[in-house]
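Here is an idea for our session: we take a single protein and study its fold together. Start from the sequence, derive the backbone structure tokens from it, and show both lines together. Once you have written the record down, we can walk along the chain together:
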Amino acid sequence: MARGSRLARVAALGLLGALTLAGCSTPDNLFWRFGWPNGITDQATDMRELWTWTCITALIVGILVWGLIIFAIIRYRKRSDELPKQTAYNLPLEIVYTIIPFIIIAGLFFFTVRTQDRVLARSANPDVTIDVNAFKWNWQFVYPDAKDQNGTPVNTTGTSEEVPILVMPVNRTVRFEVASADVIHSFWVPAFLFKLDVIPGNENGRNNVFQVTARKTGAYVGRCAELCGTYHAFMQFEVRTVTPQQYNAYLAAREKGMDTKHALESIGQSGTAVTTHPFNLPEDYQRSQISTVNPANSGETGGQGNG
């Protein structure tokens, strides 16, 4: 019993130590991510570290359980036909077995809530604010702090022929205020490891707001993650993260009257999306109709031709 109590105490201390270390950073590589995708924001890093330490805790529990099972199989394997000594209960051990799961659950709950608060945190004065307007079935990105020659806020609106590009600076706090003109959409950038439902009629700015701080420049695809109607799959966009200097130059070009394409090209960026492409609605529709034709008909036609 004494040996069992010592083992239980050691296991409890090990688990407590793992949960305590969950607040520490971990290397960002394929091994330590345990299958977690690689994000580009500070918030994505917080989520990755929570995932990593959750996996480590689960592995410790698994190794402990497997070890105890293997130990019991070997130590108490059948040696004769004599019935082993029967133990009705072990109160200290049962108490430990009850406390350890509670510590694990409480620890994971604490660190999950802490990470959630970090991911959803909003600063009172973000460096950049971008309005995201969703509609069936495309996106509009508005930069309220920049005005064109007509005094209208600089904006980019997607069409069936053009994928809208959202330009944002790295190493700056960017606040997104999302809104919907019709049904529920969902603003999703996989590289952010985050999405937010865009609920129509929510004008209080409480639920349709989030912010991120990107750390890597590049081009990243964005999508609507809420089934919103017939052409839901066509609601794609691209996020272009650039340096703060390039971002300022981009807005300056837009203020002078350049469109999105030429303003991006003026700062050395591709003027069109590079991570996705626009859908040709009429052509795609026609192809979908052709694909419904009975393949047997094609076979008969081909057979007659060969004859």
Residues 42-75 form the longest helix (34 residues). The chain is about 40% helix and 20% strand.
